[in-house]
Specification:
The chain is an all-beta fold and 114 residues long. Helix content is 0%, strand content 54%. It has no helices and 11 strands. The strands form 2 sheets. Strands 2, 4, 5, 6, 9, 10 and 11 form a 7-stranded mixed beta sheet that branches. A 4-stranded antiparallel beta sheet has the order 1-3-8-7, with no helix packed on it. It starts with a strand and ends with a strand.
Length: 114
């Protein structure tokens, strides 16, 4: 059974930083594609960043240069380092992994105050 556990969300002032973590059980991140989506109230879900099994990365234009996705294979954990946060980054952030199906974490709230 695949389980993804996110952590690291919270309240931060604009310009601040947060690091989200997503730990997996029942699957191996390094064998699959994974990443982060976010959804703000009243908005569509948006792909924020992804990392392939070969460690190739992709970012939404809105976060390029500010967010970094990486992976620790030994810990089977994917991270999202978020710098220079803006109020528009406020959302629930969801980790995902694509193996035999797409699996999702429970989500972690990120709130950026102006």
């Amino acid at each position: 059974q695949v389980q993804l556990m996110e952590s690291g969300g919270g309240l931060v002032q604009a310009g601040g930083s947060l690091r989200l973590s997503c730990a997996a059980s029942g699957t191996t991140f390094s064998d699959n594609d994974s990443g982060w989506y976010r959804q703000a109230p009243g908005k569509q879900r948006e792909l924020v960043a992804s990392i392939s099994r070969w460690s190739g990365t992709n970012y939404a234009d809105s976060v390029k240069g500010r967010f970094t996705i990486n992976r620790d294979n030994a810990k089977n954990t994917v991270y999202l380092q978020m710098n220079s946060l803006k109020p528009d980054d406020t959302a629930v952030y969801y980790c995902f992994v694509i193996s035999d199906s797409t699996y999702w974490g429970q989500g972690t709230q990120v709130t950026v105050s102006s």
